[in-house]
Amino acid sequence: MTLGWSDGNTFLPVNGSLLSSENQKSRINEAREMDKRTIGFSRRKIARTKATSVMLALIDLAKKACIAASHVLFDTWFCSPSSLIAIKKKALDVVAMVKKTSKMHFLYNGKMQPLIEIYKQNRKRRGRSKYLLSVEISIVKDDDTIPARVIYVRNRNKKKDYLILITTDMTISEEEAIRIYGKRWDIEIFFKVCKSYLRLSKECNSLSYDAMTAHTAIVFTRYMLLSVENRKECDIRTIGETFYFFSDELSDNTWIQAFNMIMKIFMNTLSDKLSLTSDELDKLLDAFLSALPKELLRNLRLCA
Predict the structure, then answer these.
(1) Distance separating alpha carbons of residues 115 and 98, to the nearest angstrom
(2) Exposure check for the chain: N or C terminus, fewer CB within 10 A?
(3) β-strand 71-74 against 93-98: which pairing, if any?
(4) What does the pLDDT average to over 155-164?
(5) Which of helix, strand or coil describes residue 268?
């Protein structure tokens, strides 16, 4: 299991865990007794827990390392009411895909019901909208209740089918939630590159858990080096502080200010090329300004 971080353009693996089994009979090459204060013991302990618990542990480790993030993305494998509430308690919002099942219930219109039934009760959006339906529900588990938004998205592969997204961030729009979830595909590309090109599953044949963990860390490091190099070569924002200087300068110059700058250059050019006096230039400028729309002229005077 791998936890990754992305800014929307570059994906970096942050941490991972080679999952094992809690049943000792299902494990091979059992490790000898080791100091419980070591990292090796901590990794083995996490690996023998449930996948959902491992996910929460990896998020805690990332937060402890001060790796900032606004949303946690995952597919249907980890999407359950308990996981959604647990992540929300960590001051993080979720954008995930929900499995279409009748076994998972959410609170809607005062009644606990599956998302499939909620879909049937509401009218769908017409046309070529990115999503068919959006409803606000409540996630309930034991004594905890949090609000969430469910978005039913068209399935591009099956015209009559739909996919279900859920987010606990009530401040973002449906389109933004769909866009954010699309960034989760970066981790699939990461797995493909590691397995097919970086020899994740073929280079190390050891049965030692420590050896496999070390090999996985080496492969992840290779991927990170390639990601950073790719960002330097392909992303124009990596040209250094020059990009931010230009961005700040452009943001400071409003359209009205830019118009004033152009007019000043134009008047200086007329003065040089036509040898007009200052009075003639003023009359020409007044005639031009009087022909402008009143609203534009008012804004120009405010910025003068």
Answers:
(1) 9
(2) C
(3) parallel
(4) 86
(5) helix
Q: What is the 3-state secondary structure (H, E, C) of 119-164?
A: HHHCCCCCCCCCEEEEEEEEEEECCEEEEEEEEEEECCCCCCCEEE
Better-predicted residue by pLDDT, 168 or 272 = 168
What's the DSSP call for residue 31? P
Q: Torsions phi, psi of 153, nearest 5?
A: -110, 145
**270 beta partners:** none
Averaged pLDDT for residues 202-218: 87
Mean pLDDT over 81-86 rounds to: 94
Buried b (16+ CB within 10 A) or exposed e, 99-131: ebeeeebbbbeeeebbbeebbeeeeeeeeeeeb
DSSP-derived secondary structure for 54-99? HHHHHHHHHHHTT---SEEEE-TTT--HHHHHHHHHTT-EEEEEE-
- Pick 19 or 239 by higher pLDDT: 19
Contact between 51 and 77 (Cβ < 8 Å): yes
For 5, phi then psi, to 5°, come to -125, 140
Among candidates 294, 292, 272, 293, which has minimal Cα distance to 281?
272
DSSP designation for 291: T
**Average pLDDT for residues 127-139, to the nearest whole number?**
88
pLDDT at 290: 79
Q: How far apart are CA 184 and CA 75, in angstroms?
A: 8
How does pLDDT run across 8-41, given as a tens digit for each residue? Answer: 888 999 998 888 777 777 777 676 777 788 887 8
Residues 67 and 5 sit within 8 Å (Cβ to Cβ):
yes
Q: In angstroms, rounded to a whole number, what is the distance separating the alpha carbons of residues 181 and 166?
A: 10
Pull the structure tokens for residue 109: 């219109």
